[in-house]
């Protein structure tokens, strides 16, 4: 059985003459494994997530569910990944909450009635079922973030890539989200600064520093010591 995610000597850089943001990273994420990707601002967490779904060019090899990330495979790979941007407005496309959440299901050929039913269910589990018919533009930042997350979860993908999912959430919403993510069968790679949130859902921590992996292990205390 192949890993959910595989990174083999992955390098990403934005300036030809400057140091790469990520330099020859190597690690894997097993199926159903929950991994926190941690590090200071600018350490490359978001860069790695975006490269994983083909939004940034990279050197080396990235695999998602055994499939190599390359231009001809990007569409297939994105269908297997639930992705949460760190700015929710970047992925909210429709005026009404339920329509935005149901969109991915409609693209897969599901009927409108069934797609909206599934959308309502995941919104309810995220604690925002009461917003199902609200216009997206009137929501708070935290509410928009949960709507965007609902869109990532609704197709039940085998891989979840989440960029700062707990940002702007109140303590109760964080607890609800942590429980929901623990209940997922998907492999999870979550970029976060919130170590308490990461500790509630993850069993492994990959710490990035200077484009390299500084620590890869199960001890959150070791991550705190190094940050």
How would you explain this protein's 3D organization?
By secondary structure, the protein is of the alpha/beta class. The protein folds into 2 domains: 1-80 and 159-165 and 185-227, P-loop containing nucleotide triphosphate hydrolases (Rossmann fold, 3-Layer(aba) Sandwich); 87-156, no CATH class. It is 34% helix and 24% strand. The chain has 8 helices and 10 strands. It has helices at 45-52, 74-78, 97-107, 112-125, 141-153, 171-182, 195-201, 220-226; strands at 5-12, 22-29, 34-38, 59-64, 67-68, 81-84, 159-163, 187-191, 204-209, 212-217. It has a 6-stranded mixed β-sheet with strand order 6-7-8-3-9-10, sandwiched between helices. Helix 3 crosses helix 4, helix 3 runs parallel beside helix 5 and helix 6 (171-182) runs parallel beside helix 7. The chain is globular and about 50 Å long.
Shape: globular
Q: Domains counted in the coordinates: how many?
A: 2
Average pLDDT rating: 94
| Succession of helices and strands | EEEHEEHEHHHEHEHEEH
Query: How are the strands ordered across the major sheet?
Result: 6-7-8-3-9-10
Architecture (CATH level 2) name of the largest domain: 3-Layer(aba) Sandwich
- Given helix and strand content, the structural type is alpha/beta
Number of helices: 8
Radius of gyration: 17 Å
Q: What do we call the CATH topology of the largest domain? A: Rossmann fold
CATH fourth-tier homologous superfamily of the largest domain: P-loop containing nucleotide triphosphate hydrolases
